Amino acid sequence: METKKRSQVTVFIIIGLILLFTFAFVFYAAKQNIIQIDRIMATPGFEVRNYVQDCLELVSDEALGAVLAQGGNYETGGAFESAKVYKLAKPIDKNGPPGIQKNYEFSSGSIATGIETYFDDVFLDGCIQNFDDFPQTTEFDKPELDVEVGDSLLIFNLFFPIIVYDGEDAINLERFTYKKNIKIGEMIDFVNKVVDSSIELNEFPEDTLKGLIDDYDLARPRKAKITILQQEVAKGPYETYGNEPREFEDFAYYFVLDDNFPLAFGIQYDWIGR
Questions:
Q1: Can you say how many angstroms the Cα of residue 206 is from the centroid of all Cα atoms in its chain?
Q2: pTM for this prediction
Q3: In the chain, N or C terminus with fewer CB closer than 10 Å?
Q4: Are the C-beta atoms of 116 and 81 separated by less than 8 Å?
Q5: Cα(263)–Cα(68) distance, rounded to whole angstroms?
Q6: Cα dihedral angle (73, 78, 81, 82), rounded to 10 degrees?
Q7: Domain-by-domain residue ranges, the chain?
Q8: pLDDT by residue (tens digit) across 162-199?
């Protein structure tokens, strides 16, 4: 009986020692990891990497917002001018038969190109600013952004070779990535159906809009991605502004509000004088 009790005690002691050593090892490993992370975070390379990542995310969000608010397009220098809403369709020929045709694309390609162009305009001068805030000597090449546009995901891939000098050490950085969830596929579908119907009808496509609102269940309050549809139509070819005549164009602006980003585009119809 005593032998059995001693055996049980021995087993418990062994288990206790195993648990003690296990906890001690886990604690030591965790402490070493924390020390290692602190060392990494204290390095100039880590600070520069975080800085570039923050700039990538900030400028990418700005670029996406600017492109979507301007009809899925952006031209060089537009960030420094007042925003314009691109007309995705316009009259074929004012002197010919009535009709309109595509003027700009609203597509994954145009969105990617617009974002990349905006990025080239703004990223270095507007955010990086030659790493002037860092005491370390930093050399870098021109950044190149490649944007992948999926139906519900945007991936911003930045290739930006950087060398950060820390005493005699040189830290090399190159690749940065940012991902954004947004329903671009639905936006492209919505816009192009409105544009295609407008081209077919040379008219505000009320039935198409109603169908799209039903298809995407956009009429429900707070769920709706479309909250404003505003049509502006000229009453005549000329009106007087002061003593000068002003020619008006007949076009509609469409405003669509997504959960995160506004979307706007224009269509110029061929009505005046017809």
A1: 30
A2: 0.74
A3: N
A4: no
A5: 5
A6: 10
A7: 87-104+184-268
A8: 999 887 888 899 999 999 999 899 889 989 998 999 99
